[in-house]
Amino acid sequence: MLALLDKDGKILDCNEHCSKNLGYEKNEMIGLIGPVDMVAEYDRQKAVDAFGIVVKNGINHDVPFDMMRKDHSIFPTIWSGAVLYDKSGNLEGYLVTGKDLSNLKNLENELEISQDHLKVSRLTTLGELTARLTHDMKNPLSSIFNRIDLIKMTTKEEKTIDHCNKIKHSLDQILHLIDDVTNFVRINPTKFQKNHLQDIIKNALEFIIIPNGIIIELPKDDPEINCDESQMTIVFTNLIYNAIQKLQDEGSISIQYDSDVSSHIIKIIDSGNPIPDDILDKIFEPLFTTKQKGTGLGLVSCKAIVEIHSGKLYVKNNPVTFTIVLPKNLK
């Protein structure tokens, strides 16, 4: 696009490509102020400043700003400008040249979409591979668990039994890490049905080794909750397991139930130290963990599952309390 401007920046002439791109007849453009009348409103000051540099320095190169067509549609451009002098060295006006970047912008958008699709494809493949690997890893670990139980049943040596318990504890940590990853990458359809809260909690406790010094208090109530039993078992397994890890070998975990007109409210309260304030808001972020042997995926999965149930999961200190809120009228 080419245009000739007078000393005040008004258009004296332009080529057909310029008028066509801007949606004007050529005669309609004559007299318009180039840096103002055909520039998008948010870029007008930028265009005026660029024109001022041409006036001051005699030239200005490759300034990007958005132009506005006659129909008020916007398109990206890049412009350069230079001063024109007559034979005597007197200022005659200015020559400005511009390039329509719409096609380039479209290519950038297409490239970005392609890259997003490629990223999604890679993540999907990685998720499938991870799910397959974690599944294959659990089989030999389960076999090791069974052999350890067999050793414990066939020996009376306290030292051997103690070693077996320590091995089982380490294996339990490995299985929990595998479950964190599996629950994060696995996408299963949610099956809603009525389930008793006590049954869900008992199912969760079956997956956890509870040290002798930790007391778990179950809720007195046993309401029916409309939920996916396997997914909610994952939530309670993670929250109780995390509390046990924090308490280590001694303390208490209280699971309490309350309700209001529209919601089930379940609280998991532990007697451990409060969560530091500087990480309290980060614990639901993917891959964030304060554990040496943690994935940072467990709480992310818990929050995602609760939100699939149209509920909320949040945490507060004094005492440390994870609260699950689930709607009663979930269909």
Automatic annotation (TrEMBL):
* Domain called PAS: residue spans: 1-58
Provide the PAC domain boundaries: 61-113
> What is the native source organism of this protein?
Candidatus Nitrosarchaeum limnium SFB1
Task: Quote the PROSITE patterns the UniProt record gives.
Answer: HIS_KIN, PAC, PAS
Q: What is this protein called?
A: Signal transduction histidine kinase
Gene3D superfamilies named in the record? 1.10.287.130, Histidine kinase-like ATPase, C-terminal domain, PAS domain
Q: Which InterPro entries match?
A: HATPase_C_sf, HATPase_dom, His_kinase_dom, HisK_dim/P_dom, HisK_dim/P_sf, PAC, PAS, PAS-assoc_C
Name all Histidine kinase domain ranges: 132-330
Q: Name one GO molecular function term.
A: phosphorelay sensor kinase activity
* Any Pfam family hit: HisKA
Keyword terms of this UniProt record: ATP-binding, Kinase, Nucleotide-binding, Phosphoprotein, Transferase, Two-component regulatory system
Q: Which domain of life is it from?
A: Archaea
